[in-house]
C-alpha cells in the first residue's frame, strides 16, 4: 500500500509498504477512508518533535472502516465506521482512570500514531488499544463531518471543558484562529458564554471567522487588549484560551485576562515562555497548560450527529493520497486560503 513516510529531518516520501497486521489482541486494523494533514506533521518534518521515529508513516487525524480486530477488542467490529483518536491510551492506569489520558503511563501511551508508530496518511492503519482509540461514527455523520473528531475537535473540546466558562456571563478570548483555534471556538460556543472575542493576525483567517461565525467579535493582536477591555465587564476576559503559540500571544493571554481568570494554554510553543510574576502579582490567575486529554470523542460525534457541531467549513482543500506532497506544500505555505486539507486514500 502507499504510505507517506517520514525519512528524517525535512524529508518524507510516498512509499510502498506492506499493509499493517494486527500485532496484539487489543489492536484493530482500519482501512482509512479520509485523513488530514496537521500542523504537528509539519513540526515532525521540521525536526521539532524529537520523539518522532524516522521510517514511520505520518498522519494522526483520520476516519475509516474497521477491517479486523484482535480477540480482546469489544467496542468495535469489522465493518464499523470509526474515528481514530490521536492519542493511544490503555484505559486502566491511574491517569486514564481519571480522564488524564494524555498522560497514560502505558509504554505505548501518548501521541504514538504518526509519530512513534505508523499513522494514517496511508491506505490502512493499525490502531493499538482499539477500544480506547476508536469511536464508532453515528449513522448519518459523513467522513468529512467526523474527520477532526480525534485530534482538532478533541483538542478544542478539551480546552473549552477545562476553561471553566460560565454560560451567559463570561467574555471568552480565544487567541489564534488557525485550525485548532477555530475548533476551540466551535467548542467554546457550545458552552454559550455571553461573548467570544477571537484575536488573529492573518487578515484571511479573520475574514474566515467573520464569514462563518458572525456572532463572534474579531480583533487583531494590535487591538486585542483594548477590544477585550472595552467589551468585558471586569477589566478583562473571564476565560482566555491561547492557541497561537508565540511569545507575543503568551503575553497577550495573561495581559487580557481579568483578575482571577483562568488562562488555558492550548498552543505548543517551540521555546520556553516567561511568566513575569512581578508584573502579574495580584491578578491571581490560574494557568492550565497544554496536552489534550482526547477522551470525549463519543460526545463530540453525538454533537456532530445532533447538528450542534460542524467543522466541515475548515476543509478548504482535498487531495488524493497520490498527490500528498503537493498537499503538504500548500498546507505549509498557507496559500490559497487553506485551513485544512482532507486526504483521500
Ligand atoms: Zn494534530
Ligand atoms: Zn493509561
Largest sheet: 7 strands, mixed
Order of helices and strands: EEEHEEEHEEHEHHEHEHEHEHEHEHEHE
Number of domains: 2
Quick one: how many beta strands? 17
Terminal CA distance reads 10 Å
Alpha-beta content class:
alpha/beta
> What's the gyration radius in Å?
20 Å
- Uncertain ranges: none
Estimate what percentage of residues fall within beta strands: 15-25%
CATH architecture of the largest domain: Alpha-Beta Complex
Helix content: 25-40%
* Tally of separate helices: 12
Report on the architecture of this protein:
- The longest helix is centred in the middle third of the chain and has 14 residues.
- The model has no long low-confidence stretch (mean pLDDT 97).
- The protein folds into 2 domains: 181 residues, Quinone Oxidoreductase, Chain A, domain 1, CATH 3.90.180.10; 133 residues, Rossmann fold.
- With 345 residues, it is an alpha/beta fold.
- The strands form 4 sheets. Strands 3, 4, 5, 8, 9, 16 and 17 form a 7-stranded mixed sheet that branches. A 6-stranded parallel sheet has the order 12-11-10-13-14-15, sandwiched between helices.
- It has 12 helices and 17 strands.
- It is globular.
- α5 packs across α6.
- The protein binds zinc ion (ZN) (2 copies).
- The site of one zinc ion has 6 residues, from loops.
Amino acid at each position: 500500500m502507499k504510505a507517506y513516510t517520514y525519512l528524517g529531518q525535512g524529508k518524507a516520501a510516498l512509499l510502498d509498504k506492506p499493509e499493517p497486521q494486527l500485532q496484539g489482541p487489543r489492536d484493530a486494523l482500519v482501512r482509512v477512508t479520509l485523513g488530514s494533514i496537521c500542523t504537528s506533521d509539519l513540526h515532525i518534518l521540521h525536526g521539532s518533535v524529537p520523539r518522532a521515529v524516522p521510517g514511520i508513516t505520518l498522519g494522526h487525524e483520520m476516519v475509516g472502516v474497521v477491517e479486523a480486530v484482535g480477540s480482546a477488542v469489544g467496542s468495535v467490529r469489522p465493518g464499523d465506521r470509526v474515528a481514530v483518536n490521536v492519542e493511544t491510551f490503555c484505559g486502566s492506569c491511574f491517569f486514564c482512570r481519571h480522564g488524564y489520558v494524555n498522560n497514560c503511563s502505558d509504554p505505548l501511551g501518548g501521541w504514538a500514531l504518526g509519530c512513534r508508530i505508523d499513522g494514517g496518511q496511508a491506505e490502512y492503519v493499525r490502531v493499538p488499544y482499539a477500544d480506547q482509540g476508536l469511536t464508532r461514527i453515528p449513522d448519518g455523520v459523513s467522513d468529512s463531518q467526523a474527520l477532526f473528531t480525534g485530534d482538532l475537535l478533541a483538542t478544542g473540546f478539551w480546552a473549552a471543558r477545562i476553561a471553566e466558562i460560565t454560560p451567559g456571563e463570561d467574555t471568552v478570548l480565544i487567541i489564534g484562529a488557525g485550525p485548532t483555534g477555530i475548533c476551540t471556538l466551535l467548542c467554546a460556543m457550545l458552552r454559550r458564554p455571553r461573548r467570544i472575542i477571537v484575536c488573529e493576525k492573518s487578515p484571511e483567517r479573520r475574514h474566515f471567522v467573520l464569514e462563518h461565525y458572525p456572532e463572534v467579535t474579531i480583533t487583531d493582536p494590535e487591538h486585542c487588549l483594548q477590544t477585550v477591555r472595552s467589551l468585558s465587564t471586569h477589566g478583562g476576559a473571564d476565560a482566555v484560551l491561547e492557541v497561537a503559540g508565540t511569545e507575543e500571544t503568551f503575553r497577550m493571554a495573561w495581559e487580557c485576562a481579568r483578575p482571577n481568570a483562568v488562562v488555558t494554554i492550548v498552543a505548543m510553543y517551540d521555546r520556553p515562555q516567561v511568566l513575569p510574576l512581578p508584573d502579574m502579582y495580584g491578578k491571581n490567575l490560574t494557568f492550565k497548560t497544554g496536552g489534550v486529554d482526547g477522551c470525549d470523542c463519543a460526545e463530540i460525534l453525538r454533537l456532530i450527529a445532533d447538528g450542534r457541531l460542524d467543522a466541515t467549513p475548515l476543509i478548504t482543500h482535498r487531495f488524493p493520497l497520490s498527490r500528498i506532497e503537493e498537499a503538504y506544500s500548500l498546507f505549509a505555505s498557507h496559500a490559497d486560503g487553506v485551513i485544512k486539507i482532507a486526504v483521500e486514500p
